[in-house]
TrEMBL record:
Keywords: Signal. The keyword Signal applies. This is YxeA family protein. It comes from Carnobacterium divergens (Lactobacillus divergens). Residues 1-23 form the signal peptide. Pfam families: DUF1093. InterPro entries: DUF1093, YxeA-like_sf. SUPFAM superfamilies: BC4932-like.
Length: 121
């Protein structure tokens, strides 16, 4: 009986360590079945771009879902993105699988209102 309890305890500790490690290195949401995948929208700005030594740029921005709910998001682009372009990101929590440029008409109304408040013309 002691071996079963000890083995179960060790297994739980190892699972907790693995989950923490995944969260720290940024893979937590990618594999978490409880986090839903949803499109979020950003309006690009070169001030949010950080050049990485390996090539390309990392962007950190505020993103909005179709209901206008805000979430911080980080994503990578192979080159500098066009200023004030609308992007639709396929996101699962803080993990971005892919992104594509869309027109202003493709952005849901609530998300568009929030994005335009960030970048008034």
């Amino acid at each position: 009986m002691k071996k079963v309890i000890l083995s179960s305890s060790i297994l739980l500790i190892l699972l907790a360590i693995a989950a923490s490690a995944l969260a720290i290195i940024g893979f937590g949401d990618r594999f978490n079945p409880l986090v839903k995948s949803e499109p979020v929208y950003v309006l690009t700005s070169t001030k949010d771009a950080v050049k990485v030594p390996e090539g390309g740029y990392h962007y950190t921005q505020k993103a909005y879902n179709q209901d206008g709910d805000e979430s911080p998001i980080k994503y990578y682009a192979g080159g500098i993105l066009k200023e004030d372009a609308y992007l639709k990101l396929d996101a699962k929590g803080d993990y971005v699988r892919e992104w594509e440029e869309v027109t202003q008409n493709d952005v849901p109304k609530k998300a568009l209102e929030k994005l335009n408040q960030l970048h008034p013309n």
